[in-house]
Amino acid sequence: MGERFQSVDDVITRLRTADYLSDAGIAGVVYLADRLEKPVLVEGPAGVGKTELAKAVAAVTDGRLIRLQCYEGLDEAKALYEWNYKKQLLRIQADREHERDWETVESDIFSESFLLTRPLLEAIRAEQPVVLLIDEVDRVEVETEALLLEVLSDFQVSIPELGTISGTQRPLVFLTSNNTRELSEALKRRCLYLHVDYPDLEREKDIVRVRVPDIDEELADQIARVVRSVRELDLKKAPSISETIDWARTLLYLGKGQIDPQVIGETLHVLLKYQSDIVKARKELVDSAAAK
Questions:
Q1: pLDDT tens series, the chain, 292 aa
Q2: Spatial separation of the C-alpha atoms in residues 239 and 230, rounded to whole Å
Q3: How far, CA to CA in Å, does 41 sit from each of 45, 97, 190?
């Protein structure tokens, strides 16, 4: 299929129209993934925009987003395809009444009308542009990772009863990982690698202003600085970008035009989701400021 992006700058510009503020590093990998037709393995902390990147790329390329949400216990039946056993059983019972021979019945029940497609097979069979998102791939077992390797290598799948099904177009593929386990070298070798970290101060301020248009520049700057300070603490879970945006909206809803220790103390629960982290942040940012 045709090239989706004309240059790295084109990626940056178009992603911005989907409210995704990309830097040159992110845009460069997306551009190369399009040209080289290779999947992108996106690693980084939870909540830094890995999943949102795939969604934004789908939006700006008019591609259908197909998402495979990975989890422990995910198998071929849920990732690729399975047969509709209940429907097959009903057909067998109906055919038995008509005394049809087994070969005829078998060829009938293992046909397209009894096939349940799952995300990977949907992406392979899609005729229109597709962005395939394999989310949190580090949560699956090694056996399922091997299945992904097979699909990503040739973008085709063999179904014993139907034969080999090959893709008619090569989708953009994004695999995200939160680094909960080490992925195989074989998987990494087939992908372009992209590490997405928390944004720097200026970029996070820009993200806040894009996602919360009613906020003024000074408050957005204060929010980005406080969040940066919070992330520097030894926390169980640092605030994500989405939590920064939620905090910005919270301050607007509460009519807060400035951030002071009292405001921080009253709204820390929006940024942090563990009581131990809230206690630690309150001690460092609120109590210490009050003591000065």
A1: 568 999 999 999 999 999 999 999 999 999 999 999 999 999 999 889 999 999 999 999 999 999 999 999 898 888 988 888 888 787 777 766 665 665 666 667 777 778 888 999 999 989 889 999 999 999 998 888 888 888 888 888 888 788 888 888 889 999 999 988 889 899 999 999 999 999 999 999 999 999 999 999 999 999 999 999 999 999 999 999 999 999 999 999 999 999 999 999 999 999 999 999 999 999 988 766 555 5
A2: 8
A3: 13, 53, 9
Q: Where are the beta strands (DSSP E) in 106-262?
A: 115-117, 130-135, 156-159, 163-166, 172-177, 192-195
Helical axes 24-36 vs 50-60, angle rounded to 10°: 60
The residues, any chain, with a CB within 8 Å of residue 14's CB and separated by 6 or more, are: 5, 60
Query: Which whole-number Å values give the CA distances from 127 to 4, 20, 101, 115, 285, in the listed order?
Result: 16, 27, 36, 18, 54
Structure tokens at 196: 């997405």
Instruction: Report whether 145 contacts 139 (CB < 8 A).
Output: no
Phi and psi at 278, nearest 5°, equal -65, -45
pTM of the model: 0.86
Q: What is the DSSP letter of 283?
A: I
Contact 46, 237 (CB under 8 A): yes
Closest CA to 55 of 79, 19, 28, 25: 19
**CA gyration radius for the chain?**
24
Distance CA 223, CA 161 (A): 58
